[in-house]
Design a protein that fits this description.
- By secondary structure, the chain is mainly alpha-helical.
- The chain is built from 7 helices and no strands.
- The protein is globular, with a radius of gyration of 16 Å.
Amino acid sequence: MSGRAPTALAMLAVLAVAGAVAVMSRAVPGPQPAAPLPPAPVGDRPDDPTTVSPVWADAVAERTGIPGRALVAYAAATLRLDAEQPGCRLGWPTLAAIGAVESAHGTYGGTHVEPDGRTAEPITGIPLDGSEGVAAIEDSDDGELDGDDAWDRAVGPMQFIPSTWRQWSADGNGDGRADVHNLDDVALAAGRYLCASGGDLSDGTNWRQAVLSYNRSAEYATTVLDTANDYARASKG
């Protein structure tokens, strides 16, 4: 994990949650180059585009410091998206960078990602109560997803708020359910969200637009860009 990617839950001035916009006083800088798109990992089953090569995953996890199970979730999501939306061109480093910022790859608070993709303990953000640097979003689901019936909170390793999860929830591992605490599911949901927001993410302007849709913060976009580029470079050995 890149040292330049603080977890969103620990940031005082920026709350990075999908669908919640924290308006910053400074202007968003101009477009920067999109994170490189390394070759997609080749699976052992060519008939299944979401199969991630364990050899590739082990090697890249060691080079980048990304936990292996988390890396598999990010790579599988981008392979799935490549089959669904080939024009999107979302690289796994972008999802990995967002996962690093949002929850340190599902390890925030001392938890971890289990072999089935779920975090051992739920990850739930602070109340979105309009306090300094935080969006004000009143409860939208009677606390069903986040356990708070007064204010919404971001939930899971990719930090979705309840209303956004209702719209973009996904079953990334084929178990028949969309689980906001499962990194396979939320990585696919986040990828679809980014593709819908930006279009062809190999274009720097589109890439930045998509990341800013996740959090309209110049600092957030720069951190994600730097971290994604770090992962892409490290993955090449």
